[in-house]
Specification:
This protein has 139 residues and is α+β, with helices and mostly antiparallel strands. It has one domain: Glutaredoxin. Helix content is 32%, strand content 18%. The chain has a four-stranded mixed beta sheet, with helices on one face. A hairpin with a 2-residue loop joins strand 3 and strand 4. About 9% of the residues have low confidence.
Length: 139
């Protein structure tokens, strides 16, 4: 039986640590061009993520909230975009994190279902000081 050299072991470990399936091209939004963004935290085996994509995903970008806070997805294990300031590390999938210029201003953890998703998102935006079109509410 042959032994592996240290160099070979390190090369194998480095290869295993590389992002898989195109994840190397990390999404980094321009926070000034689109100040409001909705980050969806997912993982490959998440059944509720698939349910959200099937029930809400097709129409989300065309909805008023989808235009105000465009959605992008990030795997639970990263990589995360540069310039993020989160209240805490996401632990559940799906999680929907409302970001204003890269700073978390609201979060929905778990999939609340098709009937309750938009009302929960509108409430989160209102609590963060925005209406459903993304305009700041004067208080």
């Amino acid at each position: 039986m042959s032994r592996l050299s240290r160099r070979t072991v390190f090369a194998i470990l480095a290869a295993l640590a590389l992002p898989r399936s195109g994840a190397a091209a990390q999404f980094n939004p321009d926070w000034n061009a689109t100040p409001l963004r909705l980050m969806m935290i997912t993982e490959p085996a998440c059944l509720f993520c698939r349910a959200w994509r099937a029930e809400i995903g097709p129409g989300f970008a065309a909805s008023p909230i989808g235009r105000a806070a465009p959605l992008f997805e990030v795997d639970l294990n990263g990589p995360y975009p540069d310039g993020l300031a989160l209240a805490r590390r996401p632990r559940l999938t799906p999680s929907f994190i409302l970001l204003h210029k890269g700073t978390e201003v609201g979060r929905i953890e778990g999939y609340v279902g098709q009937q309750h998703f938009y009302p929960a998102l509108e409430q989160m935006m209102s609590q963060a000081g925005f209406d459903s079109t993304g305009k700041e509410i004067q208080r």
